[in-house]
Task: structure prediction
Amino acid sequence: MLVKSYQKHSIKFFQQKITSSKPDRSILLYLYPRKLFCKQISDLLLPRPFLVYTRVQAMLNITEFRKKAHILVDWMADYLENVEHYPTKSQVQPREIYEQIPEHIPQNGENFEAIWQDFQEIILKGITHWQSPNFFAYFPANSSYESVLAEMLTATLGSQCMIWETSPAATELEEKMMNWLKTACGLPENWQGVIQDTASSATLCALLSAREKMSHFQINQKGFEGYTNLRIYASEQTHSSIEKSVKIAGFGKENLVYIPTNEDFSINTNALAKAIEQDLQAGKKPLCVVATIGTTSSTAFDNIEKMAEITQKNNLWLHIDAAYAGTAMLLPEYRYMIKGIEQADSYVFNPHKWMFVNFDCSAYFVKDKETLIRTFEILPEYLKTQADSQVNNYRDWGIPLGRRFRALKLWFVMRSYGLRGLQKKLREHIQLAQDLRRKILQTSDFEILAPTPLNLICFRYKPEGKSEEQLNQINEKLLNMLNATGKIYLSHTKLNGKYTLRLVIGQTYLLQKHIDKAWELIQETARSL
Ligand SMILES: Cc1ncc(COP(=O)(O)O)c(C=O)c1O
Result:
C-alpha cells in the first residue's frame, strides 16, 4: 500500500515526505533492514534519492506478500489440476525464451504483476511439464501435493542447514528420515544415510571415499604421487555420472574400465573378474566397482552378490547406483535385486525420481560413516560449535557446505502416504507397465527390446521388410513426431545399436486412460509414417 502510493508521486515529494519532521514509520521500517537508515535520514536520502526510491518501489510488503501468495497457490492448484492439457514437451525453438528477456537488469524495480504476467506468457511456454501424466520420458522426477507443500515451507523458512546448530530440526529430521528409508527399503541396519542433492554427487562421494580409504587419506594430504592408475570398473550400461565422477575425482577417464554386459544388459561378472585380474598383472591398481540397479537405458540390474564376491576377494570398494530403481526396494518382492548389499560399501537412490518427493533429494547410504566424514572433514574456527561432539554436522558428509532443508518433504510424503500408500502406488505403476508391455508384445509391427523388470518399457516400431538402418531412422522420426504433438513425451536410447523408444510409467497422478491414449497415438503415428 505504502509502496504503491509512493510510486505515484515524484521523487521530490518522496524526499519531502521522508525528511519531514515526522517521517512515516513504515518507510523507516523498509529502510532499516537494508542498512539505509542512518542517524540523519536526510543525509542518506538527499544525495541518493534514486537508489532509495527504486528499492522501496520494487519490494512487496508483508500484506502484499500474503495476497500474492494466495494468488500463486490458487494458480499452482489450477496448474496441477490441468497439467495434462499443457504441451508435455515444451514446443519453443532454441533462443525463443532468451530473446524475450531484456538484455539488462531493470534500473527501476518492477511491480509483481508485471513479473507474474511474464512468467505466464513467456516462461511457461518454455517449460516441459514433468508433472504431466503424459510425461513418459527419461526417468520421472515425480512429485506430490504433500511434497510441494513441504517445499513451500522450506522456501519460507529459508534455512541453510549446514551444521546442526544452524537448524537442529533439519539435521535431526534428516537422520530420522534416512533411518526410516533404510528400514523401509531393507538396507543394512548398521548403515548410515545422508541426503545429497543428486545421485551424481553421491557417486562422487563414494569414489572419493574409496580413494581416501585405499590411500589412508594420503591423496587428500599430498596429492596423487605414488597413486597412479587407480582403476574403476562399471558396466557398459552404467550412467554417465560415473564417468563424470571419475574425471572430477582425478582418476582420469581412461582408468574407467567399461565391462561388457549379458543379454539382459546386466554386467558380465566373469568379464569383470577377468578385467581386474589383467589390471593387477599389468601393475595397475583396482580401486572401486560400481554396480547399477536399474540402468538408465533399460532398468537392468547387476548381480550384487557376484560382484561383492569379486570386490571382497580383491579388497575393492563396491558402490551401488540405484538412482531410479532404488525406490522399488520399498517393495519386499523386489529386494532380490539388492541381494548381497551388506557386502557393499555405499548405495544411492533418488526419492526425487519415483518416490513422489520433489527434485532434488538423493538418499546416500554408507557402511562406514567415519571414512565418509574423514574424506570431507574440514573445520575452520568459524564453524566450530559447542554441540560438535554430540551431533551430526552434515557439512562433512558431502561436497557442498550449504544444505537445503530437504528432509521436510520426505517427512511430509512418508507420513502422508505411509509405507502401504507408497507401496500401493509403486505396484500400480509396475502393473500398468506390465500390461502395456503385454499389449506391445501382442502387436505384430512392434517389438520389445529389453526385459521390463519394473516400469520402463523399451520398444520400437518394426514394420516388415526394413533394414536395421531404416528401422533406426523410422523410430527416430516417430519419436520426434510424437513429441512434437505435445500430447505425450517419450525419450530414447540405443540398445545393441537399435534406436529404442523408452516409455516409463511412474507419474504420481497417472491413470490407465493416459497410457491407453499414449499407446493409441504411438500406433497411429507409427503407421502414418
Ligand atoms: C542409473 C542412474 N544413475 C545416476 C543418475 C543421475 O542422477 P542425478 O540426476 O540424481 O545425478 C541417473 C539419472 O537418471 C540414473 O538413471
Remarks:
- Residues 407-441 form the longest helix (35 residues).
- Residues 217 and 223 are 10 Å apart (CA to CA).
- Residues 139, 198-200, 239, 241, 292, 294-296, 321, 323-324, 350, 362 surround pyridoxal-5'-phosphate (CB under 6 Å).
- The two ends are 60 Å apart (CA to CA).
